[in-house]
Here is the input.
Amino acid sequence: MSAQHAGVSERLACRSFVLVAALLFCAPPARAQGLVADLTSHLIAITTGFTGASVVLFGATDGPGDVLVAVRGPDREMTIRRKSRVAGVWVNTDQLTFANVPSFYAVAASRPIEAILPPATAAFYRLGSTNLRLEAQTPAPSAVTDAFRTALERVQQQAGLFIDRIGKVDFLGERLFRTTIAFPSNVPTGTYLVEVFLVRDKDVVSGQTTPLVVSKVGIDAAVFEFAGRQPGFYGAIAVLTAVVAGWLASLPVRGA
Amino acid sequence: MDIYLPIAEVSLDIFVLLGLGAAVGFLSGVFGVGGGFLLTPLLIFIGVPPTVAVASSANQLVGASVSGVISHWRRGNVDFKMGYVLLVGGLAGSFLGVWIFTLLKRLGQVELTISVCYVLLLGTLGGLMLIESIRSMLRLHRPGAGRRRLHQHNWMHGLPLKARFRRSRLYISALLPIGLGFVIGVFSAILGIGGGFIMVPAMIYMLGMPTSVVPGTSLLQIIFVAANVTVLQAYTNRTVDAVLALVLLVGGVVGARVGSRFGTRLRGEQLRFLLALMVLAVAAKLAFDMVQPPAALYSIASEKG
Here is the structure.
């Protein structure tokens, strides 16, 4: 949420830092460049008629191998509540806060992840919605944390924000690949990272990270920003608009 | 056709929203209540976050009440003095209500409190109205029963600060409408309702106002209470979706027209009987939901990032 309020320069600086960090993290020492990839668009604009959007990721590898794509929304702090029965009524009783929950997560691969990577490697690169390493902010017994974590993953999956069904990366010939990343209408705003990995012999040999910005634009962005910056004034305008609308609504009665 | 709501952060079908506005507008046209008590649960049902639903209903209510008051005022059915006295209590009450709402939101019990309040309020009022309307329908069939007195004298008439309300033909303590307004102000902030369905029976049965001036006067003070709630919610919780409110209003206008035309064909006690049934049905549904095991035990409470 805060990302879209950041200045352009700040955003660029942040983006290039992430790029450098990602390259340092991902690039193996042996190969300098194993793959290149890019998106057809680096901006998803949420307008009044927004019903979801999709972006095509395309690229090339320097030889045979499998390609894995992970799309990660900005991290958020999320609090999960659990209901239990108190005197016959269902009440929120327990809660747990996770500090680093990606607001969106989707994976695409040329073959199923289990076939390409051993579980330990997949976990290391945080690939797959069960490998996100969600950590509770306050210490809790691991059984409790696990129950809440599973619930959080399920809630996010149901909302279409953790996409469990792994998408398909298609190869066109041996070296060119493409995949379509679809975003639902409730996609959270912010700066996303699209990570592309090249896998050979059950190991990640190359990687690249591309940013993608999801942002409200036009009147919706203006309304949202105004409501956040000038809440009192926004409230007053909301009331005034309703008063005028109500007054206009009563006008034709006079003629009738 | 979907429309993206900037504060609720969801896309919803604009025709569903217009239809919802029209349905609630129809009911408010028929019964002279704001309809917030139905609108908020319905909005939550179609996927608007509960906190946004509460705040945006209040915003929608401002517009709906303005047009309602104007049409009642043309017929001379608004007691402005009574409205302003109710308002003093109402504004004070809505400050307390928004404060309670913020507190509950932090504790994670907003939804439960909203449901419990609804069940208690709707259940009691619906029950009372049902009994009263059935009684008066039966009384019509016995012409010899004679006229009831305008109101009984009890402890309420011993209170100080007596004032004359000319249009309501009442000489009562100003503390009564102030107290009534206060209670309704608290509820309207917590529940996102204008309190019309509490106010209307309370004005008739507790204050003893003539039925004809009740809806207009009730709506008059609802404008201000709802406006105050909207500003306070926007300021403290940032949950007012003006786009949502406006779409609902557009549908509501059409519904209210049709509704008021329909309402004039029904007799007073028939109206109250139908309203009572509807109110009881909503209460029963909410009570059932509280006791029934929920579909999801876990829910996301808040996101920050």
Notes: Residues 217-256 of chain A form one domain.
